[in-house]
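To: structure desk
From: M.T.
Subject: fold request, one chain
Message: Could you run this one when you get a chance? Sequence is below, nothing fancy, just the single chain.
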Amino acid sequence: MEHTLEYAVGQMADKCSRMIISRPAQKTAVYRKIVVNKKQRNYQIEKYTEKQVFHENVDLQTLKDFLLAQLSGAYRQMNGFEEGYEHMLMVSKKGVPAYKRKKNDTVGKNFESHNRTKQYLLKEGTVVPPLVDMGIFTAEGKVVRSMYDKFRQINRFIEIINDYVKECEKDELHIIDFGCGKSYLTFILYYYLTEIRRIRVQMVGLDLKRDVIQKCNETAEKYGYTGLRFEVGDISSYQTDFKVDAVVTLHACDTATDFALFHAIQWKADMIFSVPCCQHELNAQMESDTFSLMTRYGIIQERFAALVTDAIRANLLEYCGYTTQLLEFVDLSHTPKNVLIRGKRHAGANRAHREKMLSEVQRMMEEYHLKPMLYGLLESEDLIET
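Reply: Done. Structure tokens follow.
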């Protein structure tokens, strides 16, 4: 039986809980693969580049339109999975679809929930004290039904860090958490590294609020987290006498993120995990005659300035010897500031690549009359070659 492309896509979208689009028609395709997972009320599209993954939540009709567009020239294969069946759609170079649905006993009745659970690094059923105190777990270690979204967000944060930590061969890690606040994720990260990864950890949380720091230290003592302590201090002037392996900074406001990144670079920290916030600095400086359309409208300039800020930070990290990624990350407060900068230090960075990264930053600075804080800090310590 012959099927149209629209029929095949419709069948898969209606019946499958998971779909994978692959085989780009062109080598220059932006995404190497696209994964679709059915959620309770909608569908989540995950678009994978070589270094990043982008997420989008859509309804069924929007999903069908999206799949049809992708299989109409950009990609040539889609596999779908439903309970007990596998769907296969192949599109020839001439655009002719070949679709079939066959029984597959390996796709179990609980395919979606099994697949989701398998990916979680923090397992339901295990009592995790910080998650209990946050109201995400019951006292027995079960996820509170209304807290599943936050449970997934926390696991996403741990997955992002684990991608780098799992390759670490050190027996002990020294970590600085700048701007730790109430430290929900700090406690969870410490638990994961020490209880699950079995790594010895010495971790310092830093914040300006004395009452918050006192509460955090009391909580760490209650949990028995002997390697975790909290201090009152300013990110810009903080100094330490031990080797720092990783720097974490979640929503350090505006240029506080730049000071945190600067410290990490100076200390030659192996790993950096930073979620920037409130990027006001470049927004106030930004001017351009050539690209004035980007500065004419306030909301456009604000968003553009935030993206430019993080792109410059990422490039400067690359220049300083880090392999850097910008990842989507939605934290517990549902903030729209959802970019996480992840950097891993490596020796022997290619000089031509480093010079390219710096040149791109300098051209952006020249075009928009910018003086980024991180650039100035690096320049002041002769960490930028002029």
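Reply (cont.): The first strand starts at residue 18 and ends at 24. Let me know if you need anything else for the meeting.
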